[in-house]
Amino acid sequence: MSQTTSVRTTPRQKAMGTPVQAKGSMSLPELILVGVGGIIGAGFFLGCGLPISTAGPGVLISFVLGGLITAQVIGSLSSVALDHPVEGAFKVYADMYLGRYLGYMQGWTYYLTSILTISSEAVASAIFVRVWLPHVPLWVLSSGFAALILLINAFGVANFGRIESVMSVIKIAALVGFVVFVALMLFGVRPHTLTNPISMTAGTGFFPHGVTGIFQSMLIVIFSFAGIGVFATAAVELKHPKQLDKGAVLTIVTLTALYVLSIGTLLMILPWSRVSTNISPFVQALQFVHMRALADILNAVILVAAFSVMAGAVFSANQILASLGHTGEAPRLSIRTSRHRHVQYGALLFTTIGIAIFLTLSYVLPSNVYNFLVSASSFLTFFNYFMMLATFLSWRRKNRAKQVSRLAFGQPVSTFLTMAAVLFLAIYALTEREQRLGFYACVAMSALLSIGYFFTRKYKQGMNDANSSG
User: Fold this and answer.
1) With contact defined as beta carbons under 8 Å apart, do 102 and 387 qualify?
2) Where residue 4 falls among pLDDT bands split at 50, 70, 90?
3) How far apart are CA 330 and CA 325, in angstroms?
4) CA atoms within 13 A on the CB side of 103
5) Inter-helix orientation angle 345-364/292-326, to 10°
6) How much is the pLDDT for 383?
7) pLDDT tens-place string over residues 49-79
8) In terms of CATH architecture, what is 21-461?
9) Exposure of 188 by Cβ count < 10 A (0-12 exposed, 13-18 middle, 19+ buried)?
């Protein structure tokens, strides 16, 4: 990987992003911890029920494929990030190598993805709580969680990074603990009514819905890997920037292994055909083997995990919107910051409105609430993945002598294949009726963003003309 001294600072690039030097505040283990823990959220703890019901035991292959696709994206992103450690990260990279329109779209789609993530985590948190409060309406609980996390961000949170690191440890420990508990139970170390594993393929085979079931499950699987933006900023946070590539490799390997092992052990105590999408499959599995006390504990841990992801997503969304505001690509109100607590209240206001709109739409539209939010977010994630890979190819054409991440193995052929896979999976997801609704929402948002770009350009041109005449 290249050193930070390779940053180029042409006038155009300076206008789009400020080169910064390494801050030296993050060690390699901390990067891995934040990377793995920051990605694991309700999208996996609750959302894995959807791909399991679609692909059956074949979902294990789906998560391996998801890991390979994400590895290529992280490799592409970290390669460019270390060469260009600038504020604004991948949005700036798209500006630099794909043009201002695609950079604008990249920034806004990432912001909208964050808003959809917050909304889906709020709904997931409500679903977790309904294990204990089944008669409380879902919309009341999800709205309450969203309001609470917005209030916390409004008043500011000290040591936010430290709190997020603790939450990451809890989430990782929950998955590792689940795997260890099931292994001990199956090997008879702990006496239990279930001493033999359930055959994953009994009566249905490994692919109960055929190989197409894997393709249909990939939209939700990719959602479980979303949140890889940490590697766009890690180049300026690491004490030793050269370790970014090693951290990326260890993160994606650890994450994929956790996903495959936890789901594999899950399917050994709970038949895939009985997995519900109305409760976390991990909680359901513990209830299935009559471990209700442990199920309640795990449900509480998952609730805290979802809450921490939601808090981080609100913070990230506000940062992205404020960045767009500084470049004139979002309303000026978005850059307003309070003097005392330094809270970006302008961006927080827009984020609050966005969450309210998506939560309202999710309950008004005739679709499963959580599935709609996850599907819409996943389609936007596919777009972000595609743009990151395209940015990498453009960067690579101009920087052939520079070393790339080991995760971008086999490039450029592997990069083209990954882009083709992302495009194919996005199109194939349209065969699912409920997922099409999320796609239509994304098309509508993209159209509105394109119209917004036209007016933004006109406004910028008018300002430039006024400055020139003055």
Assistant:
1) yes
2) very low
3) 4
4) 21
5) 130
6) 92
7) 889 988 999 999 999 999 999 999 999 988 8
8) Up-down Bundle (1.20)
9) exposed
| Per-residue exposure over 353-384, b if at least 16 CB sit within 10 Å of its own CB, e if not | ebbeebbebbeeeebbbbbbbbbbbbbbbbbb
User: With a threshold of 0.70, does the pTM exceed it?
Assistant: yes
User: How does pLDDT run across 259-288, given as a tens digit for each residue?
Assistant: 999 999 999 888 888 888 778 899 999 988
Q: Find the DSSP H helices in 226-368.
A: 230-233, 244-266, 281-288, 292-326, 345-364
Structure-block tokens of residue 470:
């003055």
Report the C-alpha gap between 399 and 23 in whole angstroms.
25
Which run of H or of E encompasses 212? helix 212-225
Whether 300 has a pLDDT exceeding 60, the answer reads yes
CA–CA separation, 320 and 104 (whole Å): 11
Summary mean pLDDT of the chain: 81
* Domains of the chain by residue range: 21-461
Position 423 scores a pLDDT of 95
Q: What is the DSSP letter of 442?
A: H
Q: Give the residues across from 86 on adjacent strands.
A: 19
171 against 340, higher pLDDT: 171
What is the distance between the alpha carbons of residues 348 and 340, in angstroms, rounded to a whole number? 16
Residue with tokens 């505001």: 325
Beta-strand runs (E) in 28-106 = none
The closest alpha carbon to 208, from 73, 333, 51, belongs to: 51
